[in-house]
Write a structure and sequence with these properties.
The complex is a heterodimer.
Chain A (H helix, E strand, L loop, with lengths): L2 E10 L2 E11 L4 E5 L6 H9 L5 E9 L2 E2 L5 H7 L1 E4 L6 E5 H12 L4 H8 L8 E2 L5 H14 L4 E5 L7 H16 L3 E6 L13 E6 L2 E6 L1 H11 L1 H12 L4
Parallel strand pairs in A: 3-10, 3-11, 6-9, 9-10
Antiparallel strand pairs in A: 1-2, 1-4, 4-5, 7-8, 11-12
Chain B lengths: L2 H7 L21 E4 L2 H6 L1 H7 L6 E6 L2 E4 L12 E4 H7 L1 H6 L10 H9 L5 E5 L9 E6 L5 E11 L4 E9 L6 E12 L4 E9 L3 E12 L4 E8 L5 E4 L2 E4 L4 E10 L4 E4 L2 E4 L5 E10 L4 E10 L5 E10 L5 E10 L5 E9 L3 H8 L5 H12 L9 H19 L1
Parallel strand pairs in B: 1-3, 2-6, 5-7, 6-8, 7-9, 8-10, 9-11, 10-12, 11-13, 11-14, 12-15, 13-16, 14-17, 15-18, 16-19, 17-19, 18-20, 19-21, 20-22
Antiparallel strand pairs in B: 2-3, 4-5
Helix pairs in contact in B: 1-6, 7-8, 8-9
Classes of the chains: A alpha/beta, B alpha/beta.
Chain lengths: ~240, ~400
């Protein structure tokens, strides 16, 4: 198993945001975490990435058999975890291309020009990183930087929120490409918009109030959630499939 | 100007910066001659600190010895001249005519003592009309002796429609502890001409530096200056002044990476003298250790339909450092548009966290952000000059991080 999360709880300022989550992801798999705003999805990804404002208050994270629970984010990145931030910061004075080059010098570049084409970022590279980018440009550029890291595990935080239709298409293509290279993906979305653009999703997890309440196959979960929303949908799922956890 | 008033000015302190007792320093007999390879070797370490190569250097001053060589293949091909000012004052009428015209010798004790004791050592550069010199002209001023005083008086004239890019480095080799450098620079940018001036200071903890710079830009001329200080220093005080005629413009950027216990007092003043002149004064300050930085900027509009903008950004990296931004905008005619903005802060935590999540260590992430912070881009700078400035800023950001 590439990633194993056991009984993971994470806290921000002593408040429990993610509560005893278990999750296993293998190479090349795509897992989608869905849930309403504020349910702890982003915090879960940030915890896996090891961002400093989040404290693990229970459980362990194993990556490639290694316990990474106490490792700083840059070490996790070196091990092969990459996070596409939901809101990457605008960095004045630092060119997009400079960061791309710096990442390439760390991780190498076999197919970075292809990736730039898939995500249509060529014309953005000369600009300051994320400064004045549109919603779609930000998401595509951030995903491009994630791809340059050649990660074993890509954590994608709301790659489909606030973006135009074309950008969703490019982003879905990029995710398919990542998977074709054997990268595992955990994708967080609250709208689920991108899910019908992806050819194969291994599991859908429904997260509410910091806990994964249900997990199942896309064919079983998506129609119900799309029709009934999260809380009512969850009731229907539990009644119909008696699956979940 | 009569000698008496200049002699009187020998005891006149400068308006800003610590007052220096010049009698504590030794002055060599000013001399000049052609540059030889042996002398170049003696300043290997200095060139290293500045990131300069030996080959393109056209003027080197070591303490009070002026050494020059014409970059035969390049400068002479263009008819441009570079030589010690003392030689130019003997041979070239123009040099005589314009020397000490922009900067008055009795401005303060530093200008007065340069006038009286400096022996007119320094460089003179002349660019003929409608001549564009595409490659940078490199000059280097080094103090290699202990407790020395170095005077330099530089005069540059870019004639009508001409263009030149000057890169000057001032430094001491490792091991020199004390000294003072006084540099008087007078630049003339004639009609439709353009001058870019990139200055790098790389001194040491016991060095005082007092540059005095005046620039006169004629109609439709352009002056661009990048002023970079990245070493520890005892004190540096400068306040270049640029006079702008009709349709002319100036862009002055200073980048200061302050460290140690140095006092860095850097300013820039532009005078929008005539219609449709414009200027921008940009400064970036990164201060660590116990350094004190005063970033001054002053734009004075004497004509309507002029534009001026000041931007000062500071990054404070230590509890004991100080950054002070002092912008002044003065309008003497309605219709002048003047503005300033200043901000002092620290490295943004969320940017640091973001970069670290991409696999950069904290140190690497800081270096990237500081390098980005220092990225100031003058409009319309040629590619090779921009590359040179970028190379210098790469060097500076390494020192700024510490």
């Amino acid at each position: 198993m590439l990633l194993e999360i056991r009984e993971l709880s994470s806290c921000i300022n002593d408040k429990v945001i993610v509560n005893k989550v278990n999750l296993s992801v293998d190479r090349g798999e795509i897992h989608v975490i869905m849930g309403p705003n504020g349910s702890g999805k982003s915090t879960l990804l940030s915890t896996i990435m090891g961002l400093p404002h989040i404290r693990v208050c229970n459980g362990r994270i194993l990556f490639d058999g290694l316990d990474i629970t106490d490792k700083p984010s840059y070490e996790r990145a070196k091990l092969g975890i990459a996070l596409a931030h939901q809101y990457p910061p605008e960095i004045k004075g630092v060119k997009f291309s400079d960061i791309a080059k710096a990442i390439i010098s760390k991780y190498g570049c076999g197919d970075c020009s292809l990736m730039a084409r898939i995500l249509r970022v060529d014309e953005l590279l000369d600009r300051d990183l994320f400064v004045g980018f549109s919603g779609g440009e930000k998401k595509r550029s951030e995903l491009y930087l994630v791809m340059l890291q050649s990660p074993k595990l890509a954590l994608l935080d709301e790659p489909d929120s606030g973006v135009d239709v074309e950008s969703i298409e490019y982003i879905a293509n990029a995710i398919e490409y990542l998977r074709s290279r054997g990268t595992a993906v955990i994708l967080v979305t609250h709208t689920g918009m991108i899910t019908n653009k992806l050819s194969r999703i291994n599991r859908i997890h429904i997260m509410i109030n910091g806990t994964i309440k249900y997990n199942g196959y896309p064919d079983e979960v998506l129609p119900v959630i799309m029709k009934f929303g999260y809380s009512r949908g969850l009731e229907v799922l539990n009644r119909t499939f008696k699956g979940g956890i | 100007m009569d000698r008496e008033s200049i002699e009187k000015a020998l005891s006149k302190p400068a308006l800003y910066g610590p007052d220096i007792d010049l009698s504590k320093y030794r002055l060599d007999e000013p001399s000049m001659g052609e540059l030889n390879e042996k002398e170049l070797e003696s300043i290997d370490n200095v060139l290293d600190k500045l990131g300069f190569q030996k080959t393109p250097l056209s003027y080197v001053q070591i303490d009070e010895s002026a050494r020059y060589r014409i970059m035969e293949k390049f400068l002479s091909k263009y008819g441009a001249k570079i030589m010690p000012l003392r030689k130019a004052l003997d041979e070239i009428d123009l040099a005589k005519k314009i020397s000490w015209k922009i900067i008055k010798p009795d401005t303060d004790k530093y200008t007065a003592s340069t006038y009286l004791h400096g022996g007119e050592i320094g460089y003179f550069i002349y660019v003929p009309p409608h001549t564009r010199i595409p490659i940078p002209i490199y000059t280097c001023l080094a103090i290699i002796g202990e407790k020395k005083i170095q005077f330099a008086h530089n005069v540059v004239y870019v004639d009508e429609g001409g263009e030149a890019h000057l890169v000057t480095g001032c430094a001491v080799p490792h091991g020199v502890r004390e000294g003072i450098h006084i540099g008087i620079s007078e630049f003339y940018v004639a009609r439709n001409a353009r001058l870019t001036y990139t200055m790098i200071h790389a001194w040491a903890e016991g060095l005082h530096v007092r540059p005095r710079t005046g620039v006169y830009v004629e109609e439709s001329g352009e002056y661009v200056s990048y002023y970079v200080v990245y070493s520890p220093i005892a004190s540096l005080q400068t306040y270049p002044k640029v006079y702008l005629s009709k349709n002319s413009r100036a862009y002055l950027a200073s980048i200061t990476a302050a460290s140690g216990s140095g006092i860095y007092d850097l300013g820039a003043k532009t005078i929008l003298g005539e219609n449709n002149s414009s200027s921008e004064i940009i400064s970036r300050v990164v201060a660590r250790d116990n350094s004190q930085v005063y970033a001054r900027a002053d734009i004075e509009a004497h004509s309507s339909n002029t534009r001026g903008h000041i931007e000062c950004l500071g990054l404070l990296l230590s509890d004991n450092a100080i950054v002070s931004s002092i912008p002044i905008i003065t309008s003497k005619k309605p219709g002048a548009l003047l503005s300033h903005e200043a901000a002092i802060g620290m490295i943004a935590e969320k940017e640091l966290v973001y970069l670290m999540s991409k696999g950069f260590t904290e140190e690497e992430a800081r270096a990237i952000l500081i390098r980005g912070f220092m990225n100031v881009e003058a409009p319309s700078i040629p590619k090779n000059i921009r590359a040179e400035i970028n190379r210098i800023l790469d060097l500076v950001s390494k020192y700024a991080v510490g």
